[in-house]
Amino acid sequence: MKKELKCHVGIGPKVEGIALVAADNFSARYDLDRINGVFSRPQHKLYGSSYKDVILVLNTAKGGVATAWMLYEMTSRKIAPKGILFNSVNTILAQGAALAEMAMVDRFEDGDVTKIVKTGDHLIVCPDEGKVIFVE
Amino acid sequence: MKLNNEEQAMLAGDFGPAVKWAMEHQLQVGRMFDAEDMVDVSQAHMMADPESLGEAGVAFTEKLAETDISVRIPTITDPRGVDLECYEPIGQTESMAELERRFIAACKRMGITMTNTCINYQTIMPPVFGDHVAFGDTGVVIYSNSVCGARSNFEGGPSALAAGLTGRTPRYGLHLNDNRSSTKRYQVAEEPKDLMDWGVLGATIGRMAGSYWEVPVIEGIEKIPNSDQLKHFGAAMASYGSVPLFHIVGITPECQKIEDVDGQALEATKVTKETIRDLRAPFSAVGSQVDVVVFAAPQLSIIEMSELSKLCSGRQRSPTTDVIVCTSAQVYADAVSMGYVNEIEAFGGRVLVGTCFYQQYAREIGEANGWTSLLSNSAKIVNILGGYGYQPSLASMEACIESAEKGIIVQ
């Protein structure tokens, strides 16, 4: 098992947490019940799962621009993921992470991050260094 | 990133704390996307409804406004979440309205023009070919890039606000020529007919493209579409695929022939009737009761208002089916003077001004009104509302009105 993944330099602070993984895309508006902190879109692969304090691992963005404000709003109420790893971010997700001071990285050298990382893996995300460390 | 003297002064705080925040924000984003420098923008368009902002976003904006800063370029706004002339009748609360009032006051204090529209390219000041802008609302961005030939990334509310304050944005993504070439090629088997068809085709291509960094080039469209058709096409493509730019061969300005966008060597994917049917299938509930029929996403143009009013004329909605129509203040004024609003209201519809249904606390108003089954001709809105507890269905404008009349979804 790899001990460390290299990725593009990202946004936000260094964080540590447990991964919640799906080969699916993401929009805070389309997919979340932000009051209760769960995925609420029935078609989403994480439907019903809590995203509070986890490190989400997903494919890419979908949909609109609302996520940029919503990540900030979610973080202010402390019902938010600690960080998000994507195969590829769009501009909105990066802008939202910047305002919310949420860890976010993408573009992994070893390929599809939703296949490399498993739900329950213990991770440290280092956006400034462009790396993610697996904790034994 | 290379910053000129003025940008360095902004970063140092010489223009005040709000501009300093804006430049710091832009540098973080620019760094993530390898921007080398900044590019001047002529306009900013900010999405910021109170549901997305929450108390935190409104307080953040108020704090910026308290520094007595003004935007440096024309900065306009996407639809609001609360029509302050009509919020209690649709189940919105005083606290939602108060949040909206506070945000509007903060924006006005910063010199932001409250246009409250997602069809600014039809009603306010369309960008021109090659114009660098900082637009929010994915439908606005994809239309401006593709149909106008302007240059914008998706700028979320905070970034559009930052661009308004600094007058520039990091030069990455669609501000660069290299990122505007096509990466996926699609051949359309059947040309769309009505607005819903255009939305479904856009949704289908968006879902297939599936990434912000893909640029579809589309062949097989011979008849030049009108602005409303391309509006629904682009809005749905952006919604399903997060796609910010498309080219249609022989129609959109950067692609008179496929070689113009380097698409000639790309393998073509056929968009078949079956593919389109697959996309529509989850949004078909013919024969079921419909609680609310919604015309929105994007806001209706004056032409759509005219068509809708003709369909409503002399008819009456079912007492068990509500009808909501969302348009901009600019269109609304003309629609009143032309008698379109009267016709829609006589049918039993409610016309909301400066809002868009999915941006106005869709979950809460659904619960307040007992709306679960929803029908629309917007492929974009049916994609969004599943996560808000609705069972959305899709039909043409004609079928939507007939369904509202009967209280049952018709073919």
Question: Which structural category fits the helices and strands of chain A?
Answer: alpha/beta
Spatial gap, N to C terminus of chain A: 10 Å
**What is the CATH topology classification name of the largest domain in chain B?**
Aconitase, domain 3
CATH classification class of chain A = Alpha Beta
CATH level-4 homologous superfamily of chain A: Phosphohistidine domain
Describe the model.
The complex is a heterodimer of chains A (136) and B (411). With 136 residues, chain A is an alpha/beta fold. Chain A has a single domain, classed as Glucose Oxidase, domain 1 (3-Layer(bba) Sandwich). In chain A, 21% of the residues lie in helices and 25% in strands. Chain A contains four helices and nine strands; from the N terminus they run ββαβββαβαβαββ. A seven-stranded mixed beta sheet of chain A has the order 1-9-8-2-5-6-7, with helices on one face. A two-stranded antiparallel sheet of chain A has the order 3-4. In chain A, 57% of the residues are buried. With 411 residues, chain B is of the alpha/beta class. Chain B folds into three domains: 5-177, 2-Layer Sandwich (Aconitase, domain 3); 181-281, no CATH class; 284-406, Aconitase, domain 3 (2-Layer Sandwich), CATH 3.30.499. Chain B has a five-stranded parallel beta sheet with strand order 12-11-10-13-14, with helices on both faces. In chain B, helix 8 runs parallel beside helix 9 (227-241). The longest helix of chain B has 16 residues, at 17-32. Chain B is globular, with a radius of gyration of 21 Å. In chain B, 57% of the residues are buried.
